[in-house]
Amino acid sequence: MVSEGEEPVRHFGVVTLFPELVSTALGSGVVARGFKEGLLQLDLENPREHATDRHRTVDDRPFGGGPGMVMSPGPTVAAVRTLKERLAGRSGEPVTVVYVSPQGRRFDQALARRWSQQGPLVFLAGRYEGIDERIMDAVVDEEVSLGDFVLSGGEIAAIAMIDAVSRLVPGVLGHADSASEDSFGASGMLDHPHYTRPEDFEGCRVPEVLLSGDHARIARWRAQQAQERTQARRPDLIAGPDDAC
Ligand code: 9D3
């Protein structure tokens, strides 16, 4: 599908020591088309370009001791401010700076939806043990995690969040995809199982109902499958009376 031409561009920035990791990951797939068509724009800034010493140092040893290294405030804050000013100037909107970190609140579809309706997002991806806390006070608005597991750095988390938000930007997806997006988001339910040809794969047949041509019956079967799977695998998604708030 071609761009509608009316939608404003959505701007993303990533501050990262590995910009090629981010550009490579977002260079394929349906979201990549959004970037190629100009619906989405990605700017990358490497703190190393803002290092002032001969060795382009971006990290240092932790005060108080301990293992690993900490990202220094100077180069990282300079990189964030560079992106912030560029994206604010280009869009005319306020910029939100997100530090992706295991200490943040958990990312979810509701947050993706909120972010898809506001101005530019700049993601700060950490490496090493983390960032100097004063970076938080200087430039960070929100701290967000992907979940309770350990990654080697923030880039993959930032990529996941950009992907999730980009899918919600009008025109990035075709109509079929947008519809299924709505059904997950609105009902908060897991998907029903899917089947395609052949009708028999290694002796396993496609459920008869899907071959019946009875669309009302198919819709009921799918809704029931989604309900059963959600109940079995993710009962937390099915709001009981106590979950109302
Ligand atoms: C082994 C290092 N850990 C010591 C307790 C701390 C730690 C530092 C840096 C753990 C992970 C990371 C890098 N992770 C991220 O930057 C990150 C992340 C993640 O690891 N899991 C889920 N969401 C995110 S968002 C950013």
Profile the largest sheet: 5 strands, parallel
Fraction in beta strands: 15-25%
| Uncertain segments | none
Distance between the termini: 40 Å
Global Rg: 22 Å
> What is the count of β-strands?
10
Mean pLDDT: 93
Helix content: 25-40%
Determine the number of helices (DSSP H or I, runs of at least 4 residues).
8
Order of helices and strands: EHHEEEHEHEEHEHHEEH
Strand order of the largest sheet: 2-1-6-5-8
Ions, cofactors and other ligands present here are: ligand 9D3
The coarse silhouette is: elongated
Question: Structural class given helices, strands, pairing?
Answer: alpha/beta
Task: Walk me through the structure.
- 38% of the residues lie in helices and 17% in strands.
- The chain has helices spanning 19-25, 30-36, 73-91, 109-116, 133-139, 155-166, 175-187, 215-233; strands at 10-15, 40-45, 59-60, 70-71, 96-106, 121-125, 130-131, 142-145, 200-201, 204-205.
- Strands 2-1-6-5-8 form a five-stranded parallel sheet, sandwiched between helices. Strands 3-4-7 form a three-stranded mixed sheet. Strands 9-10 form a two-stranded antiparallel sheet.
- Strand 9 and strand 10 (204-205) form a beta hairpin.
- Helix 3 (73-91) runs parallel beside helix 5 (133-139) and helix 4 (109-116) packs across helix 6.
- The protein is elongated and about 70 Å long.
- It starts with 9 loop residues before the first strand and ends in a 12-residue tail after the last helix.
- Ligand 9D3 is lined by residues 100-102, 126, 129-130, 145-147, 149-151, 153-154, 157.
- Ligand 9D3 binds next to strand 5.
